[in-house]
Design goal:
Number of helices: 17
Structural class: alpha+beta
Oligomer: single chain
Shape: globular
Number of domains: 2
Largest sheet: 6 strands, mixed
Strand order of the largest sheet: 3-2-4-5-6-7
CATH class of the largest domain: Mainly Alpha
């Protein structure tokens, strides 16, 4: 692998695999609100939050971490203002204290915050305005959860992102492909990947243990172990689901994300960890398998985008399947079969927001990935021309990515409209 591609692949891992506390969409709202409060120099009297449909969809039903059980858009934004620390990025709510929670609850009761749908914007879009005493601050986020594109104070612009400069500073995800992902994972200096992968192993492993030890949400992970028994295939699903059980229901432990999502970060990581332990692969080989998993998931998501009606658990579990196949000694052809078999099977799972059932979708997607591996191990694979399966793995990934990004736009709108109509809310 040439130096430029090696540098890019390493940079992608470091950009994508970062810690986040709680579901990343409410956290992004809290981060924007904390930043808006940081630049507001007066006493706040009211707040407005403008969001894309996908943000609304992913925040409506999930518990905001360190909130005492509060849910929803207004709760995330107001708590970010009263107790958030914007310097912590996606861990903005880690230091929230009891006073900040009580203040947030009182402001919510008083109708301090109003939320509105903003149409015709990126799938990931947030605008937070804080107003009071005739003054106003505004913070706008787009494309990624902490990517501030504009800040204003009293109508005067104090920051605007320089798009070209920002793009130049980002790693080039267009260079990702399955063959080079495997080459990078196999040849990378272990010292280059140890810290970034090690943090994912520690944090995501800890929240999986928490989810198995306590009754969070629908307890999907615990149920799998209780009903289906204790073998590596069940444990791989159960640990990933348990992490989501905890995270979707307010657990205050951070996770390392993938493609902007903690659920995807756990689905990439935890099944591979379980199979690595079962195979007694050792730390270094497990870490290299996790490089395969994470980069394969990111490779798929580059076509789909951050938020979509396409469930990200599928691309993440597909990455885990690729990592598991590599752990078993699989080469490029074997890994390609696992990827193809996974996304040709469960590529139709829809995202209807972040909530308890995400754990079940993760379990289903991981189950499909494990089956895909064992099919491929026997040289069994869905054939080109069958549905979205292309003549090679890269074309299959592109086909499914196009469906997720373009083909499911109307699906996304339909899901959002049904979610809004169900409870009669204005957004």
């Amino acid at each position: 692998m040439d130096h430029e591609r090696y540098r890019n692949y390493l940079a992608i891992l470091k950009e994508e695999l970062i810690p986040a506390l709680g579901c990343t969409e409410p956290i992004a709202l809290a981060y924007a609100a904390a930043k808006a409060k940081e630049i507001f120099e007066h006493v706040p009297e009211r707040m407005e939050v403008w969001c894309s449909g996908n943000i609304i969809k992913n925040v409506k039903s999930v518990t905001v971490p360190n909130s005492g059980g509060m849910r929803g858009i207004e709760a995330a934004a107001v708590l970010g203002m009263t107790g958030g620390d914007a310097s912590r990025g996606l861990e903005v709510l880690e230091g929230v204290d009891a006073a900040a929670k009580e203040r947030a609850k009182w402001l919510l009761k008083e109708g301090f915050c109003s939320c509105f749908l903003r149409e015709g914007v990126e799938n990931l879009y947030i605008l937070v305005k804080i107003m009071g005493q005739g003054h106003e601050s505004a913070v706008e986020i787009a494309d990624r959860h902490t990517r501030i594109v504009r800040m204003e104070r009293d109508g005067r612009q104090i920051y605007r992102i320089q798009e070209e400069t920002a793009k130049e500073q980002e790693a080039d995800r267009s260079l990702l492909n399955v063959r080079d992902i495997l080459s990078f994972a196999e040849t990378a200096d272990f010292g280059d990947i140890r810290d970034v992968i090690g943090r994912q192993v520690r944090m995501n492993g800890a929240i999986a243990e928490e989810g198995l030890a306590h009754a969070y949400g629908a307890q999907v992970g615990r149920t799998l172990l209780e009903v289906y028994g204790d073998n590596v295939k069940v444990r791989a699903k159960a640990r990933a689901a348990a992490g989501s059980d905890a995270r979707m229901n307010g657990c205050p432990l951070p996770v390392v994300i993938n493609s902007g999502s903690g659920n995807q970060g756990m689905a990439c990581c935890l099944p591979v960890m379980e199979f690595a332990r079962y195979l007694e692969a050792g730390e270094e080989r497990m870490y290299r398998a996790l490089v395969v998993s994470n980069l394969t998931a990111i490779h798929q998501k580059k076509y789909i985008g951050s938020l979509s009606a396409y469930c990200g658990a599928v691309s993440a579990a597909c990455g885990a399947g690729a990592g598991i196949t590599w752990l078993y000694g699989g080469d490029y052809e074997a890994v390609s079969r696992t990827i193809t078999n996974t996304i040709a099977n469960v590529g139709g799972i829809v995202c209807d927001g972040a909530k308890s059932s995400c754990a079940a979708k993760i379990a289903s997607a991981v189950d499909a990935a494990v089956m895909a591996h064992f099919l491929g191990e026997r040289s069994r694979c869905f054939e080109p021309g069958e549905g979205l399966v292309g003549e090679n793995v890269e074309k299959t990934i592109r086909n499914v990515g196009y469906v997720g990004k373009a083909g499911m736009r109307d699906t996304d709108v339909t899901i959002l409209n049904l979610m809004i109509a169900r409870d009669g809310s204005s957004v």
